[in-house]
Specification:
The structure is a homodimer. By secondary structure, chain A is an alpha/beta fold. Chain A has one domain: Ribokinase (UDP-N-acetylmuramoyl-L-alanine:D-glutamate ligase), CATH 3.40.1190. The first copy, chain A, has helices at residues 28-36, 54-62, 125-134, 147-152, 154-162, 171-178, 183-191, 232-245, 252-269, 283-295, and strands at residues 3-6, 10-16, 19-26, 42-49, 65-73, 79-83, 92-97, 117-120, 140-144, 166-170, 197-201, 207-210, 215-218. In chain A, the strands form 2 sheets. In chain A, strands 5-4-1-8-9-10-11-12-13 form a 9-stranded mixed sheet, sandwiched between helices. In chain A, helix 6 (171-178) crosses helix 7. The radius of gyration of chain A is 18 Å and the shape is globular. The two termini of chain A are 33 Å apart. Chain A binds chain B through residues 86, 181-185, 202, 205-206, 208, 214-220, 222-226, 253, 256-257, 259-260, 294-299, and chain B through 86, 181-185, 202, 205-206, 208, 214-220, 222-226, 253, 256-257, 259-260, 294-299.
Chain lengths: 299, 299
């Protein structure tokens, strides 16, 4: 089945020890939509300005992404500027220009409202709530967030969590939200707020899935050369939900495989800047790395 | 088959956010020998002083550990005092009293020299080399070390690596030895110094195994309550080699299982101070956690 992705579409300026890009395609919805598109049809809801390069839209469309929900408004596209040092887990934000994002209040197109798989990529939780209200009957809602919303919009975020099936956060966010340093305790505290599953991403250290009935841990796919970690978490989430939506049944086994596919998608995206690496891979590459990953983690 | 363990036997003073112990049983050889003893017979080579409590020796013997190679000399036992804050990966060393360890030059008992499985636990690499010279024909040599020897005895350590089949280090040590921040590159650099396999421990983030022909990654066994991380790496190594020595054949599959058993043993030891947790578990507990661990990592 298809999935609906709502989040930011951005023009990023990123510097890492391995290079830099200016006005590159970025944004939480972009990374996750393109990642999910390898597993099925994707509909994208977001906002950009007239400055958003036409070839970026062509790129999305070439990935079988329905961009009818992408509002192209008068004004400037949201822009994030960041810098990574050798600690590639934590970027330093140099500048965040909200621009059109500041007044983004999405109108979900009528033909999107019946969507069953929804990914609420990182964006203001009020926007996430507005989208939830507009959808008729989503079957599986996955929500991502970031430290800023935990600090400034915790109330709205808690409402999002109540209405979501799966929450995706990183380890620092899980600790910050829960006040628990131990990840198992943090996960339990997050589960108490409503989601059926909590995924805690740990960057280069892998990822864990928590539910009241089972837990699952996976290492990262170790790479020798890494160019730019931007969007790794979004790409993970897109691959995760994209794979799930492609399954005829969803159970513990498919959740675990979905985590592995998400990990593999993230391992590709960090090999180059922006979404450049995803332009060059096929389902065959994904499958080969998945098989390799299984071999290097199974005992 | 039985294994021979050479390393430190210590009296530890440890403080963590969860409590403290004074003059507790510790040392690299102690943790690894007791851990390995769950899988088969262990022979221990080390040195202690007359101050070493008799009940600690009884405890080792009760674990089927042959202590004929434990020299009880006139003088004081090696003692380590350390403190952990909430970052449980990195203890602060408050005091290291070498005492008898400073002049430790082991004489391997004649009946130990035919041992086929040797664990050179963390100790001065000159001591490790002396043991290697005395053994007739070890089949599998596993060597551990620490940052101090990398900084001060790199030449001797390199000789140990040349004569070892498997090197066990943590991520910081791997980076320090190789000068490579990327773990894959660091592992390759270490492999170039002779060992057939390199194991890089990453504390609460799991562990990786590198060989020229395959790699293997495993997360840690996540615990809700952790009391004292002291000896986790030694306990890991003891479980790893103990399991291998119990196998009728050693291949890629048994190496991976051995890593999992090592991880499980480490997950037990950190649940209490000193070796207290290992006093209370049985093979059945180990097997149950192993099965659970497999379930929570397989996809």
């Amino acid at each position: 089945m298809s999935i609906l992705v709502v989040g930011t579409v951005a023009l990023d300026n990123v510097t890492t020890p391995f290079g830099k890009v200016k006005n590159a395609l970025g944004g939480s919805a972009t990374y996750s939509a393109v990642s999910a598109s390898f597993f099925g049809k994707v509909k994208l809801v977001g906002i950009v300005g007239k400055d958003f390069p036409r070839q970026f839209i062509s790129f999305l469309i070439s990935h079988n992404i329905d961009t009818n929900g992408l509002d192209i408004a008068r004004g400037k596209t949201f822009s994030w500027s960041g810098k990574y040092t050798f600690d590639l887990n934590n970027p330093q934000t140099l500048k965040t220009e909200l621009n059109l994002l500041a007044r983004f209040n999405p109108n979900i197109p009528e033909e999107y409202k019946k969507e069953r798989f929804l990914f609420l990529a990182n964006i203001d939780p009020h926007v996430q709530l507005s989208v939830l209200k507009q959808l008729y009957r989503p079957k599986l809602v996955v929500a991502d967030t970031m430290n800023y919303w935990i600090e400034h919009e915790k109330k709205a975020l808690k409402k999002v969590m109540q209405k979501s099936d799966i929450l995706v956060v990183n380890d620092a966010e899980a600790r910050e939200f829960s006040g628990e340093s131990n990840l198992l305790k943090a996960a339990k505290a997050l589960l108490a707020h409503g989601p059926l599953l909590v995924i805690i991403k740990r960057g280069e250290h892998g990822c864990s899935l928590f539910s009241p009935s089972f837990t699952f841990h996976i290492p990262a796919y170790l790479l020798e050369d890494l160019a730019d970690p931007t969007g790794a978490g979004d790409t993970f989430a897109g691959g995760f939900l994209g794979y799930l939506a492609s399954c005829s049944r969803i159970n513990e086994g498919t959740f675990k495989k979905a985590i592995a596919y998400g990990t593999i998608m993230a391992s590709f995206v960090v090999e180059d800047f922006s979404l450049n690496r995803l332009k060059k891979i096929t389902k065959k590459d994904i499958q080969a790395r998945f098989i390799h990953f299984r071999k290097m983690t199974r005992f």
